[in-house]
Every structure is written in C-alpha cells, then in structure tokens.
Amino acid sequence: MVRRERVRPTFNRITSNPRCPVYEIVLPVPPSEIDEGRGPHETSYGNIEAVNAMFHKATEERAHILVRYQDIEIAPETVAHLAAGFSEDPYFGVIYPRILRPEGDPYMFDGGGASPLGRCCSRRILPRLRPYCISLEMLIPCALLRNTLVECLSPLDSTLSSVEGAVVDLLNRARTVGFRGVIDNRAGAYVGADTLDVGRPIADADIGRFFRERPDMHAARYEFSKQSFVLEEKLLSCVVALGPKRLLLDATGMRGFHNGTSEAALSLMDAMYLDNGAFDFEVSVMSIDEAREFHRLGYRYPAWKMVGPEDSDHYAIMLRLNQPWSVSEIVSFHRRAFFNVVTMLDTICWDVQYPAPPGLTEAWETCAQVVDGIVYISEFSRDRFRRRFPVSPRVRELAQLYSLSPADYLPHSHSEQVEEGIEPYILVVGNSLEHKFVGPTVSTLAEAFPYERIKALGLSSSDNEQVEPIVSGGLSDAAIDELYRGAKLVVFPSFYEGFGFPVLRGLAWGKSVIVRDLSLYQEISSRYRGPGRICVFSDPVELFEIVGRILHEQPVASLPTGGSLRDGEEPPNWATVARATLSFMWSLCREPNLEHWRHRDWLSRVTTCEVK
Length: 612
Hints:
The relative contact order is 0.09. The chain starts with 9 loop residues before the first strand and ends with a helix. The radius of gyration is 33 Å and the shape is elongated. It has 21 helices and 23 strands. The strands form four sheets. Strands 1, 2, 3, 4, 5, 8, 9 and 10 form an eight-stranded mixed sheet that branches.
C-alpha cells in the first residue's frame, strides 16, 4: 500500500464583517484506509493539535468556524446565510448546508450514523422541505460551528484517533449541554465532480470509545433515525423525480388459493399490466411467497419486479389491493410510499365481528383519516364505510364497480351447451362464513324441491343425498366455469356483499341469478348489459316462489339492466377499471400534500413509540 504524506489543515478568515467573523478550517480529504504501518492515532494526532491551535485563534475574535473538506466548495454569501441562522435560536450550535452534486442535486440523509449521507436525489425536493431541520451531531463534509461552542467546549480531545472523531465528540458534548445541530435546506455546498463518496469515516477505535464512554450517543442516533425529515425526503424524492413514478402494488392479501380477494387482485393487475404504459409507472408487486408461487406472479407479469413483505425500498405511491387490517399495516404503508391508497372491499368483517382481528376499529378509523386515497368497489360499499368511519376531506375517494363485462367472466373459448349425461342442477354459491348463508339456504331449498339436485359451493358437508357439497377455495377456474355452465339457475343468498363475483359469473353464462334485495344489485344491474337476469328476494317465501317459477319456465320479475348506460355504451370491463384506478393514482402523484403526509407521519410515530 502506498504511504500518504501527512497533510495539515489550513486556516483562513472568510468574512470581513467584524460583527460576525467566520474562520474556515479546510481539512484534507481523509484516505479511505489507514496508512500501512501507522496506527490511526499516529496519523491524526498532529492534525488534531493543529485544529486546536486554530480554534484558539478564532476565540480571540469570537468567530464562528466553518469546518469543511478540501473537496467541498461553498460561496461566501452562503456562509453568511448560515451564520445568520444562529440568530434564529440561541441553541443552534452547528448548522449544516445541504451537500450538493455539481449539477445541484442533493445527497439525502440516511440516518444517524457517523457518515449519514446516502444517495443523491432530485434538487426539486429542496423547495418543498422545511427551511430548517433540527438534527443530531453528524460528520458532514461542511459545517458551521457557533462561536460559543468554539469558546466553551474546545479544545478537541487529542487522545482520539482522528480529527473526524474529535469533531463529532465536540458536537456530542455540545448536545449534552443543550446545543443542537441544524440542517439548512436553503443553503448548499458543492462537492467536487470527481468525488463519488461524501461519507467521512470515523476510526473504529473512536466509535468504540464513544459508545463506551457516552452511551447516550446510541439512544440519540436511534431517535435521529425516527425523525420525520429523514423519511420525508426519501419518499418525496420518489414523487418529484423525473421519469417513471415508482408504484408498489401490495398484494399481500392474496393467499395460495383462489378466492374473491385473489380474483379481484389478479384481474385488476392483469388489466394494469396491459395499460400501465399510459401512465409511466415503474411497478413492483409485493406478495407472500406462497401466493407468488401459486398464482405464478413472476411468470404472469415478467416486466414487473416481485418483492416480499420484507422489502425496504421506497416508492412514490402504493396501492393496497384489499383493505388494511391493523394500524401497524397503515404505518408500514406510510414508511414505504409517499402516497398511500387502499382498496375498501366492504365492511362485512367489522359488522359481523366474529372474524374481525383485534384493533380493526382503530385501523379503519385511522385509514379514514390519514391515507391519501380510498378505492371502493361499489357505491354501496363506499356508503357503508362512510357511515361507519367518517372520511377526512383530505382523503380522496374513488367508487367504481369491478368489471361488468360478460366477456371478462367467461373462458376465451366456451360453449353454453351442457355435456350429454350431465343433469342440470340448482347452484348455490358462497363460502363457510355465516353471512353467506349457504347451509340454511341449501336445507330449505332441498326441502322445498326434493326432486332437484343441488350443488352447493361453500358447503363442507351434507347428509342429504340430493345435495353435493363443494368446499370453496380449491377449485380451478375451469372447474368453476363448469359449475356455472351446468346450472339451471344460480342462488347467491349472501346477506352482505361489496360486489359479488358470483352474480357476474352467473350472468355471463346466461343464467337467472337470484340474490337478496340489496341496493348493490340495483347499482350493478343499472350498469350491466348482456345475457342473464337478476332476480331479488327478501325472505324464504319469495326465494321459493322465484325458484319454482324459473324451474317451471314461468315469467318472473327481474331488475332492469343498462339504465345508467348510454345507447350503444358497453358496460365497464377490467380495462376500464384499471385505467380509472391508474388515473386516480397518477392524479395524486401530481399533487403532493406535505401537510397531510406530515400529519400521518406524526401519527405513525406516536402510534409506534414505546410508552415508558
């Protein structure tokens, strides 16, 4: 290894104002490694003594001291601006300018480490940030020290191994007596074009000594890492950067089987995958391993990045493809993306309570106040949520039905003819949850129509030979299609839905679909145009009457369709839904609301802090 010649710091007066003198100490750029054959103390001792001599000289004029490395350039007027900042607060002890690349892009703050500067981001974030951020002591390549610190807390500790360590030690001692560091987002110092790494290492020996002798430094650095401005500029940089906006699709609600959640998420993502280019999003999909493998997400979306829940990257915006279940999930959304959008499928779980996880009330109350957008799958679902959880005016909302196009619910090649030898049956659809009401409905239909075969999707077992129970969740798409194709009619007896895929699937196959009399189905029928019909019932007597009339091919009342569509207008399909969702998110990205973000950030930090 080539030995480096010892280079001493230089000392200059850089302002002529006698009321506010400023001296600068220019330090040589430290080597990335300790010279071979020399210990760190031997290398730096002379420099610490030289800096102390300069501190002593500055005290004679009560001067502030600018400490910078030789590869950092800062204009005299910028130094004067920094010095004026001391008048803002008597406990501003050190003021840091932003460190900028030659083209003006700032280095972001990574946290409270000894070398806190991370990657660069767009200069467009700087006007949006607070003028000042009160911070921890840091080793940044340029810092203005208040004269009070120079006079009262010098000299530097010459028993430390490096000038860098001695400066941080001084700043740490300043904090313990009440002086804080301040980052000035309106002042910039430029790093040389040939400098790629602006981190300034502190010798390991100094770091070890700090944490032995000053245990408060560890706690202070932990608190620094939680300060809002660190996360704020990382996320805001994703929003204001030129080029594609980073979008995270949170599909962690999907599991390794088929259900309504996976059908909705996959159908929406399929359509987004085909239409994303119109909005210039760079998309990542977050899912659990089980779901990623079962649904073959990497194969299905080869141009998108696949990540797991442990992903720590940052995004401009994220869309949760189903509703959140805890406040901690909402906090995690906030830490991942500047804009948080959630999908509210329905409020069933909260109303029926028995499957609700602890804290669901607090989660949805928080969601209604702090997320940036809520996407509802129907106006019916939106109205239920609003009545239970008042939504803040700062939260944008989009209510849109999922696809109502029959083509989206049929296989690409299909026939409505039932294979010979297969006896048609009544199909009852649901799952094991009580509000689906599959078991009681099947029992009463079997009693009323003892000569009819009944297939019950969502029923685990039955003692009645005319009933074929089919456990939900394990069937392939092809098997489900066969169920609908072979049915005489479809009964969907659920008391409570946000949309109802079985209704659209039954209609697509041209069936009569019998549902409870909910305004949801009036909303669907008014925007639907195609085969099949929707018949509604309010009680078992009406259900039996409707089923009986259909079985005997007698006239039956049904909901009118297409009333909200113009002449010739097609019902919305998945492409329409995807386009509206992407447009909704794109509009959010164009209007970053920092006050709303900071309110959510405050709440997330209060929520997660430990009460001692």
